[in-house]
Write a structure and sequence with these properties.
mainly alpha
Length: about 180
């Protein structure tokens, strides 16, 4: 087992890309809000695919380093979990349509996609409950709070977020300090 740390230039590149991916994820959440009704379809798809592409770049950058340092091809393929890769170019699949049907409370004819339909139904039921998963609420509040702090727009949180999430996001934003650039 190799115990050498990640090289600093690679680590910095990964941090930059992950930060970019998180920002895209936050924008996905932002465009789901009611005040974005006129552009949510386009913008959530843009930002979700941007986030996926960015995280693919992270994986490929690390993989290229591993390849360069002699990692066996079969090990690399295993770590990349290539069997889980879904190609967006193929468009939506029956499983995706069944999942949406379940979310929307509609019946589906496809027996091969019952599991995805059932998952969609469960997610729709969970979304109707006023008590949300604390982990999801915390993650959403952190993303919105971070973005609001970086954009110096903390007051806008109340205009588009549910009150509980807005309050948490405001606390996150208030807790963050904007780092001062070092002067040389």
């Amino acid at each position: 087992m190799d115990s050498t740390p990640m090289p600093e230039p690679l680590r910095r590149a990964i941090y930059q890309l992950v930060s970019e991916g998180v920002q895209n994820c936050q924008e996905v959440l932002r465009y789901t809000e009611p005040d974005q009704a006129h552009i949510w379809k386009r913008m959530t798809l843009y930002r979700a695919t941007d986030a996926a592409d960015t995280m693919d770049m992270v994986a490929m950058l690390i993989a290229a380093y591993c390849e360069r340092t002699g990692m066996a091809s079969h090990t690399l393929q295993s770590y990349l979990q290539v069997g889980q890769q879904a190609i967006r170019a193929h468009g939506t699949q029956e499983e995706d349509r069944s999942h949406v049907a379940g979310l929307m409370g509609e019946a589906t004819r496809a027996s091969t996609s019952r599991m995805r339909h059932h998952r969609g139904q469960n997610q729709a039921e969970q979304a109707q409950r006023p008590e949300d998963d604390p982990g999801k609420l915390f993650t959403e509040a952190c993303l919105h709070g971070l973005k609001a702090k970086l954009c110096d727009d903390v007051d806008s949180l109340d205009s588009y977020l549910p009150p509980q999430v807005a309050a948490m996001a405001r606390r996150v934003a208030e807790a963050l300090e904007v780092p001062e650039l070092a002067t040389t």
